[in-house]
Specification:
The mean pLDDT is about 85. Helices cover about 35% and strands about 15% of the residues. The strands form two sheets. The protein has a four-stranded antiparallel beta sheet. Strands 4-5 form a two-stranded antiparallel ribbon. The protein is elongated. It contains two helices and six strands. The longest helix has about 45 residues.
Length: about 160
C-alpha cells in the first residue's frame, strides 16, 4: 500500500452513500405504492364480487342499498370496523355495468325501469372503480415529487355472465 492513498476509500464512500441511500428509499416507496395499488384492487374486487353474486341488485340506485353495503363491507376491517386504508371512503367508488350486444361487443346497459332488473337489460359485467383516484404522496428525502393518483378498476361477470 502506498502512502497518501488511504483517504480515497473514505472520500468515495462519502460520495456514493447519498446516492445509494436515495435508491434504497426510492425502492421502498415504489414497493409501498405498489402494495397500496394491489390492496385497492383487492378492495374493488371484493365489492364487485359481492355485487355480482347478489340477485336483483338495483343498479339505478348506486348511492344506496346493496351497492353501498358492498362497498362499505369491502373497505372496512371486519374485526375492528375501521377502514382498511386511511382516507378511503365509499364516496370515492363508482359502480357501473357493462352489457354485451347481439354481436358480443361490450357497451352500456339499458337501465330504464331497472328497479330489481324488472324490464331492464340484465348486465353481463359489474365494474367497480375509483375514477377520482386515491392520491399518494411519495416521500423521498430532499426530493419533492408530485402526488400520484392511483385509479384501479375491476370488472367481474355479473351472476355467472359469460366472459
Amino acid at each position: 500500500m502506498r502512502r497518501g492513498r488511504a483517504g480515497n476509500m473514505v472520500l468515495e464512500a462519502a460520495m456514493w452513500l447519498p446516492i445509494l441511500f436515495l435508491l434504497i428509499v426510492g425502492m421502498e416507496q415504489i414497493g409501498k405504492i405498489t402494495y397500496l395499488y394491489y390492496t385497492l384492487k383487492k378492495i374493488e374486487y371484493a365489492a364487485a364480487r359481492d355485487l355480482a353474486v347478489q340477485p336483483g341488485v338495483d343498479f339505478c340506485d348506486t348511492a344506496g342499498g346493496a351497492t353501498q353495503a358492498a362497498i362499505q363491507f369491502a373497505i372496512t376491517d371486519p374485526s375492528t370496523a375501521q377502514p382498511l386504508i386511511s382516507n378511503l371512503t365509499a364516496d370515492m367508488f363508482q359502480v357501473s355495468t357493462i352489457c354485451l350486444d347481439a354481436t358480443g361487443a361490450p357497451g352500456g346497459c339499458d337501465t330504464s325501469g331497472c328497479a330489481g332488473l324488472v324490464g331492464a337489460q340484465r348486465p353481463d359485467f359489474v365494474t367497480v372503480s375509483i375514477p377520482g383516484g386515491y392520491t399518494v404522496q411519495p416521500r423521498i428525502p430532499y426530493i419533492t415529487l408530485n402526488p400520484i393518483a392511483l385509479t384501479p378498476s375491476v370488472t367481474v361477470p355479473f351472476n355467472g355472465g359469460a366472459l
